[in-house]
Structures are given as C-alpha cells and as structure tokens.
Amino acid sequence: GGRSVRPESVVGELSDRQREAVETAVAVGYYDTPRDATAETVAVEMGCARSTAAEHLQRAEAKTMLALFGE
To answer: How far apart are CA 53 and CA 24, in angstroms?
Structure first.
C-alpha cells in the first residue's frame, strides 16, 4: 500500500514557473508516448532557454515524485 496524495496538494508545491513548464509540456506532447516534443519545444513555447525549461521540468517532476513516494 501507499499513501494517498491529492493532486491539488502536489500542484500547490510547484512554483508558478514549474507549473507553467508542466502545463506547456503536457500541451505540446512532451509526456506522450512516443514523445512528440522535447525540452527545446517546451522552451520555445515558454520563451526561455532549453536548459531553463529542462530545470523547471526536472524540479517539478522531483517534487511530484517525492510527494507521491517520498517519506
């Protein structure tokens, strides 16, 4: 078993820019299988550098995974 985490509680942990990055990534197909977009695609949509978009996504993903599976 695991613990139950409400999605809104995870989203509330993200910064505005992290939330924007994830929302953009979902919209452009970054999380599709097969992947339809790259961090560069997300960056272009956000108007920032690829490394910045990638960092926002990584931090958002880390917060999400820690909320779901961390201690």
So the answer is: 10
